Amino acid sequence: MTYRIALTFEDGATRIIDCNPGETVLDAAYRQKVNLPMDCSDGVCGTCKCRCEQGRYDMGDDYLEEALSADELGEGLVLTCQMVPASDCVVAVPVPAQACKVAPKAHEGTVVSVELVSQSTIQLRVALDQPEALAFLPGQYVNLFVPGTKESRSYSFSSKPGAAEAQFLIRNVPGGRMSRWLVETARPGDRLSMVGPQGSFFLRDVTRPILLLAGGTGLAPILSMLEVLADRSCNAPLHLLYGVTEQRDLVETDRLDELAARLPGFTWSACISSLDAAHPRHGYVTDHLDGVPFDVGNCDLYLCGPPPMVEAVRTAVRDRGLTPAHFHYEKFAPTEAVPT
After folding, report:
1. How far apart are CA 332 and CA 215, in angstroms?
2. Which domains does the chain have, with CATH numbers?
3. pTM here?
4. 158 closest CA partner among 310, 307, 304
5. What is the structure's pLDDT at 277?
6. From CA 55, how far away is CA 126, in angstroms rounded?
7. What is the pLDDT of residue 17?
8. Which residues lie closer than 8 Å to 290 by C-beta, 6 or more apart?
9. Closest CA to 155 of 146, 147, 164, 295
10. Mapping DSSP to helix (H, G, I), strand (E, B) and coil, where does residue 103 land?
11. Who contacts 150 (Cβ-Cβ below 8 Å, separation ≥6)?
């Protein structure tokens, strides 16, 4: 049995490696041509210090406190030259991927379908040539190339890791290069190239209730997270607030209902910012925080949406004196996701 170790770099790149039982993360990385920072490899210098954000591991006691103090160990810092995983792990590496000689990974696929599910949203399904090679964390994105050009756009997966098909919810940008290709030109059978995965917005271990906030196509990475939580039979309280401009912009509502049937602790509600909509909830997601069925000040909060929405939520949470245990967010512009 091997463990899967997701190495997330400070520039947003991710590389997932296999680690054998009893093998250190540093040795596993070098075996797979990922040159993590190191000097002594004996637990003396501290050069290989990283942060384990998820998973179980053994650090042993063959390292100096000058290299890793007890306080640092308690905060999740590790020495990869001494860290022996006991489960799948996520390790944050405090350098860019290029510094570790990790080149962006290219992937190929074939368009299965392109559907305009609303005037503002395109659903793209791509059959991957090698699904097992595109290992990503739920919530991450790839750079998808516009066919026939060197231009790319960043889109989050709405599908779960390991699926044979990659699915995306893409904002239909009037005059946008990718939007125009998808709406006017793309056909089943067309070939697509992508590079990734990327992004520090991904699902962490579930240890408390989770509040999910999505604006428009910011629903995509939330769907990927929910699919994984459903597969894990998660029973923690989960609530999604999904905001759009017009009622016709609501998409994937049947899928959300199906996920609610698989997740006993999951509830969701939508709100429409347009006051003319025939919908029971109007306004923005910030107007409905009081309706969350658990304490927002004692939860993990995941937020994905356009920059104004993200800033509005951050301000609303602060002004209410709420301090979520962890607050993970990602802003996206019309052409690409912007990791924060």
Report:
1. 10
2. 3-100 (3.10.20.30), 113-198 (2.40.30.10), 210-339 (3.40.50.80)
3. 0.84
4. 304
5. 66
6. 31
7. 94
8. none
9. 146
10. coil
11. none
Strands 89-93 and 49-54: antiparallel
- Dist. CA 224–CA 167, nearest whole Å: 9
d(CA 14, CA 183): 30
**Predicted pLDDT at 274:** 77
What are φ and ψ of residue 103, in 5° steps? -85, 150
CA distances to 135, 202, 208, 240, 294 from 237, rounded to whole Å, are: 27, 18, 8, 10, 8
d(CA 57, CA 157): 29
Give the contacts of 12 (CB within 8 A, at least 6 positions apart): 198, 199, 200, 339
CA distance 1 to 178: 42
pLDDT of residue 322: 82
- 84: tokens are 């022996």
CA distance 19 to 2: 5
Q: From CA 5, how far away is CA 139, in angstroms rounded?
A: 17
Q: What angle do CA 223, 227, 229 make, to 5 degrees?
A: 115
Q: Region of 118 please: left (phi>0), alpha (psi -120 to 50) or beta.
A: beta
CA distances from 224 to 54, 150, 253, 293, 316 (A): 18, 27, 14, 22, 26
For 296, the enclosing helix (H) or strand (E) is none
Rounded mean pLDDT for each run of 10 residues along the chain, 340 residues in total? 92 91 96 91 91 94 90 93 96 90 90 95 97 91 93 94 96 91 96 92 92 95 97 95 92 96 95 78 86 90 91 88 86 52
The residue type of 183 is V
Neighbours of 75 (CB within 10 A): 9
The answer to whether 67 and 37 are in contact (CB under 8 A) is: no
What is the pLDDT, as a whole number, of residue 333? 64
Nearest CA among 60, 59, 63 for reference residue 46:
63
Please answer whether residues 203 and 234 qualify as being in contact, where contact means their C-beta atoms are separated by less than 8 angstroms: no
Query: What is the identity of the amino acid at 330?
Result: E
